Amino acid sequence: MRRPLRKGRLLTAALALTAGLLAGAPSALAAGTANATTTVAADTYTWKNARIDGGGFVPGIVFNRTEKNLVYARTDIGGAYRWQQSTKTWTPLLDSVGWDDWGHTGVVSLASDSVDPDKVYAAVGTYTNSWDPGNGAVLRSADRGASWKKTDLPFKLGGNMPGRGMGERLAIDPNKDSVLYLGAPSGKGLWRSTDSGVTWSQVTSFPNPGNYQQDPNDTTGYANDNQGIVWVTFDESTGTSGSATKTIYVGVADKDNAVYRSTDAGATWQRLAGQPTGYLAHKGVLDAKNGYLYLAYSDTGGPYDGGKGRLYRYATATGTWTDISPVAEADTYFGYGGLTVDRQHPGTVMATAYSSWWPDTQIFRSTDSGATWTKAWDYTSYPNRSNRYTIDVSSSPWLTFGANPSPPEQTPKLGWMTESLEIDPFDSDRMMYGTGATLYGTENLTKWDSGGQFAVKPMVQGLEETAVNDLASPPSGAPLLSALGDIGGFRHTDLTKVPSMMFTSPTFTTTTSLDFAETNPNTVVRVGDLDSGPHIAFSTDNGANWFAGTDPSGVSGGGTVAAAADGSRFVWSPAGTGVQYTTGFGSSWQASSGIPAGAVVESDRADPKRFYGFKSGKFYVSSDGGATFTASSATGLPSGDSVRFKALPGTKGDVWLAGGASDGAYGLWHSTDGGTTFTKLSGVEQADTIGFGKAAPGALYQTLYTSAKIGGVRGIFRSTDKGATWTRINDDAHQWGWTGAAITGDPRVYGRVYVSTNGRGVIYGDTSDTSGGGGDTGGGGDTGGGGTTPPPTGACSVTYKITSQWSGGFQADVQLTNTGSTAWNGWALGWSFADGQKVTQAWNTDYTQSGASVTAKNVGWNADVAAGSSVGFGFTGSWSGTNGKPTAFKVGDQTCAIG
């Protein structure tokens, strides 16, 4: 069975994002304004992923050619990662991408500098059509991705567009690393930087911007975009250190003119004579030692499609083309990708049948420069297979998808969408390759050649790549239930462990909504998308096991669903038909009246017959179990449909509503009368989600969480006093792009919050402030009662932690705690470096450095630190020789204890 894990995301996530960021029209003023003073304080949170491990397409893997174990991976919407050899895990590098630049979590290409391995570049941007309103950019880092500087481009880039598995489109001159090239889509041509990525200009002499479109008749701007310039490869043997490389090859999305070459460092370009036509060159990989350019061809741009393909070898000295395809053209049903050369033994070449969905992908290997090939698996007597590999997914057991296929299919599969495959340039035994669901690897690859079986296993821990549509944290049972794009969702009984399986029976490609019965959490419902089969499922054991419901007539997609407080009935607003209700578990449905199709539905969390809906600026209420709805008289709510709302557990009629758009009503509203009236919170400028968690110690109301803009700052916020004051609990280093789909606190753990992302999985945060302080429990946010004038002189403690270190550079996190009895209103922390370290960049603080002395001061939003609370900041720095920790810290004249 095909499992195009990203296919569902192309429209659903993109359109959801577009709606969330752009939709809405001017509407009437809110019905009321809360008499609350909102302040923005700061708290120190620890952020982690609820482990899933992978979950999406990995289109690019990049090994540095001069430093061992320096490896990067790029994802189509979930950012970039760096390999940590000591733990064999991946470290995310683009979590600092903020709300306004959400498209920059899509990485279309990545380049690691072999001259200066500390430098890495990423070409970012998610869509080239209107779904992403922003242009692309090139990010550059001098500390291996710990921090970035950005150059905006005058065109868009498409990390999640067709053809994204081709590449790499971004390349660094191996002889003169201040020179970079970038292949652009959409007819924008070839671009070059001569100052290490700071500025870019078009290479006007390059003759062909490409012409291939996946579907010229598509009107969305998605499939009809010109896929453009798709890869750049340097022949390092034609240059010397410090001088620009003379010979450069460029791949173009043009079936008749797919490869060009320059022999004068990019001044002039010629179509490579004698090249094959009728195909796109997905990859161009050069073996400079033997003088061969290898090319992997497909008849389409991928990464899903491709029905024919060829492999060719071009002799750079003679211009001779040789067809080295492992399979006769008549027998192919796939395109070739995943091309790599073993740098220790350049005659060894590998490639993949990236678009061979059934029965499996195929990997080809040659040890004689393509003269002969062997396969990762062969048929013995059809449909039986003989594999040259073993595969162990015990670390990510869901990769079997719960399938029980018939031969020749096997589970788990070797992969699909295998556009990226790389042999470690320092270790012929290590190979990594990306699939549509994970990143696999082996550490004994050469067993392939000796008649043994090489061992494949996931090498993906730390790389989290799911798009999150909904989250739930029941008061008992599993702490987290998730609704995900592409792989459905999971029941997490332990956030630190990969669940054994996604939701099955049925297995939705994408789960769009889920809910549990508030007073009977064993009853759970989920709805989602499926090519054929039911779109709703129920569980009576807290999501551990499921059974399918029956669809009403006309259902085409999941929509939203709500469970009654006691689990006795359900209301469903599916795609394709109107709102429906049922008693029991969906064996029969009846149409709800008084509410429009497409409304978002939720349930009251105390009254089992009370349900709510929202559509196009109107709030709807049902008191008869969803049979009939009545439009509320509330006015001033957002006019568009980018709204999410929830009812407070345990209290009838207590509803919070978040949403809107920047050109109309936008913010957070509260109703205590079941939606009859709403009051807008004056201090919340924008809000997109709302969730509830365990009340703070001593607080009478549950904790609120939102992804919002408050005090002019976008972030994740918490309130422990019913929205009177707010604390930003994330920081600039932890933003994760777009977080507008869902949020929920944990009803059992104070301060714990679960945050949705669009490609970085489920993030959860835990507070260091277990007392419920942090500036948001004082009621009214009055900073005049007990605050001090900087610099504070109360007792303090400091924790200084080096979180990452590399040759010449490091990253550190600092936590400053007010251990006195008086609140701070402004702070400045001073210390000295004994070993000549220099701060190069900092976040969540304004810093100065004079010689060895450093002073880190608060920024506007984290000035207030209540007694017993903490504030955190971080920085990157340079070092040489030794990198000792500071031995003394002071706030004003007060020496801080060191934790």
UniProtKB/TrEMBL annotation:
Q: What is this protein called?
A: Xyloglucanase
Matching Gene3D superfamilies: 2.60.40.290, YVTN repeat-like/Quinoprotein amine dehydrogenase
Compositional bias (Gly residues) = 771-788
Domain of life (superkingdom):
Bacteria
Q: Domain (CBM2): give its ranges.
A: 789-899
One Pfam family in the UniProt entry: CBM_2
User: Is Ribosomal protein tagged as a keyword?
Assistant: no
* GO BP, sorted A to Z: cellulose catabolic process; xyloglucan metabolic process
Q: Which InterPro entries match?
A: CBD2, CBM2/CBM3_carb-bd_dom_sf, CBM2_carb-bd_dom_sf, CBM2_CS, WD40/YVTN_repeat-like_dom_sf, Xyloglucanase_GH74
Q: Which SMART domains match?
A: CBD_II
Stretch list, region Disordered: 765-793
Q: Which UniProt keywords apply?
A: Carbohydrate metabolism, Cellulose degradation, Glycosidase, Hydrolase, Polysaccharide degradation, Signal
Record flagged with keyword Hydrolase: yes
Q: Which PROSITE patterns match?
A: CBM2, CBM2_A
Secretion signal span: 1-30
Annotated GO MF terms = hydrolase activity, hydrolyzing O-glycosyl compounds; polysaccharide binding
Q: Which SUPFAM superfamilies does the record cross-reference, listed alphabetically? A: Carbohydrate-binding domain (SSF49384), Oligoxyloglucan reducing end-specific cellobiohydrolase (SSF110296)
Name the family the entry cites. Answer: Belongs to the glycosyl hydrolase 74 family.
